[in-house]
Each structure stands twice: as C-alpha cells, then as structure tokens.
Design brief:
By secondary structure, this protein is mainly alpha-helical. It is about 50% helix and about 5% strand. The protein contains 11 helices and 4 strands. A two-stranded antiparallel ribbon has the order 1-2. It has a two-stranded antiparallel ribbon with strand order 3-4. Helix 3 runs parallel beside helix 5.
C-alpha cells in the first residue's frame, strides 16, 4: 500500500525509501508462526507456537522471500517490482527474478498449472494469477523478455482452460484435482482483482485487445457480484474474515485503479470514489483507524483492515478523485 501511495504523492519518497530498505533486509528474517490451509471455500490461518495435529510448523525466517506458499512468494515479487519501478534499484528487480524462478518450480503435475503450496495440496486461482502478473511484469522489465512472455502466455492459456473464469466472468477459487476444472469455490474480491493487473501487464508486454476486453468483463462481474445495493464492495467472509480475508478488497481496488488509468470508464470511477467515501464516512474511527466493513459500522481495525481500506482511498486519489472530501482529523 505504501508503494502505491508513493506513486501518488512523491513527497513521501525519502520516508518510504527507508521503509523499503528496512523491509528488504529484515522481513526475510521474520518468523510469522503462521500456517495456511486452503479449501475451495475458505483460507484458514493457524498461528503458533502450538499447532493442531497434522499441521506442520513453519520454518524460521524465509530467505529470499521464499516460503512454502507460492501465493506468498507472488505477493513479494509484485511488491519488489512496484518498488523497483519507483526507485530503479536493481536489487529489487533481482529479488523478483529470483522469486519467479522459485515459483516456476511449482508448475506442473496433476492438472498442470501452479500449485498453491510446496506440499502440493491445492491448485487455486490466486497463485496462478500472481504467477501470470509476475511473468508479465518481468517481460517488460527484465532481460530475456521472450522467456517471461512465454511463461505468461502459458499461464494464461492454462488459466482460461480450467474454467475458473465462469460463465458470469466471476473467478471461482480453484480447480478440482480430479476433473481439472473449476471447483465452483468461493468468489473472492482478490481473485477478481489480481487478474486485472495481470492482463494489463500482459497487454503492455504484448499488446492484444482481447486482454483488455477480458479485464473489463471481469471487473464488471466482480463489482456486480460482490457489491451491495449502494455499490459498496464486500467479501463473502464478512464480518469474520480471519487473518488474510480483510486484505482482499484492497487488492481489488488497487488493480481496478490500474484498469481505470489504462482505459477510463465512468462506472469504474464512480465505484472507486463511492467506496473511498464510504470508508471515510462510515468505517473510520478515532485516529483514522479503518475497519473491515466499508459500508460501516466500524468494528475495529487491524493492520490488514487498515491497509486494505487505505488502498480504496489511494485508488480514489490516483484516478483524480476530485469529489473526495477526506478531511483528516
């Protein structure tokens, strides 16, 4: 989120650079003591030091931003690519390149595509959309463009072939490892969002109008399926979204912002501005804490709810939200 804000307000450059450097050096040493379990309908996070029977405790630290989950690695790769775009420091690009190579090792096996984790228990939309996004971005930034572009094309062909993008252009959670087709799992906002950024990057690397057409359809579908009657975004897990779920909507807004900047659309602009206003008016508490329910009421804040809701505000600012009145108290 900070990198997205810096892209809007360059006065934060100096402060942000210290944060980027510290994160780059220290985050790899962290021990989060968390383990995730994915099903077609949920993501459950277990927090240590004691874990239930059958849950393997995580390793201490994750050198190179590599761990047991390919989606986690994809998030790190995209973060360093964003920071590379802002700073042009080669080490951030190299980190993303190295992460991509580790992710690539998770490709193949049953049904093809990328595994969600290194224990090979599930294949879902999110890690495959992230893999597409990282490959497409590297195709425009790293040497050996064709190598990354070929991986991006391979991923996109596989993704479409699974039917995870359903007939309504909503993205279900993953695939059934027996049929190798859509498992009809939960439609989450982050799955609707990551693919938007991925298709935009694929279009940048190898322009083809069908990528933009598909991105628009998926964006429309996500807004229609996941919004309430006032046009405010929700996820099916609300109001109890665990450790990961509160972050999902911010990811959708970040990528919808990118789509809006690339191909302006009045409906997307209205949606982004409306959600930002609702966050500020109805889901904010003392000290500008931001919660999970963007429609309100405020139910408490965590790091995840704060950064996710802040993404809605940053998205509105990025697209030139002239009608926003965000008076900081």
């Amino acid at each position: 989120m900070l990198a997205d804000f810096v892209a809007v307000d360059s006065s934060l450059d100096v402060v942000a650079e210290h944060v980027f450097q510290n994160t780059f050096s220290q985050a790899q040493k962290a021990s989060l003591e968390t383990v995730k379990v994915m099903t077609p309908y949920s993501v459950t996070t277990y927090t240590g030091p004691q874990f239930p029977p059958g849950i393997i405790p995580p390793k201490n630290g994750f050198a190179g931003f590599l761990n047991d989950f390919y989606d986690d690695e994809g998030w790190w790769a995209l973060a360093w690519l964003k920071i590379y775009d802002l700073t042009k420091q080669r080490r951030y690009l190299q980190a993303a390149i190295d992460i991509f190579e580790d992710m690539r090792e998770g490709w193949g096996g049953i049904c093809g595509g990328l595994w969600w984790n290194k224990q090979h228990s599930y294949k879902g939309a999110i890690e495959n959309a992230l893999f597409l996004a990282v490959a497409a971005q590297l195709a425009s930034r790293a040497p050996n463009k064709e190598y990354y572009l070929n991986w991006a094309w391979k991923e996109w062909e596989w993704f479409q072939g699974t039917g995870m993008i359903n007939a309504r252009y909503n993205i279900n959670n993953g695939i059934n490892l027996v049929t190798c087709q859509n498992d009809n799992g939960t439609v989450w906002s982050y799955n609707q969002g990551v693919i938007l950024g991925a298709l935009l990057e694929l279009y940048t690397a190898a322009p083809k109008k069908t990528y933009l057409i598909m991105a628009e359809r998926i964006a429309y579908a996500g807004i229609k399926f996941l919004s309430d009657s006032d046009g405010i975004l929700h996820d099916p897990c609300e109001p109890n979204c665990g450790a990961d779920g509160p972050q999902f909507k911010g990811i959708f807004m970040r990528n919808l912002q990118k789509l809006q900047l690339a191909i302006p659309n009045d409906r997307f602009k209205t949606f982004i501005e409306g959600n930002a206003k609702s966050v500020w008016l109805y889901d904010r508490a003392f000290g500008n804490q931001l919660g999970l329910l963007w429609s309100g009421p405020f139910m408490g804040a965590t790091a995840s709810t704060q950064s996710s809701a802040a993404e809605a505000l940053v998205a509105a600012l990025a697209i030139g939200g002239q009608n926003l009145d965000l008076n900081v108290q």
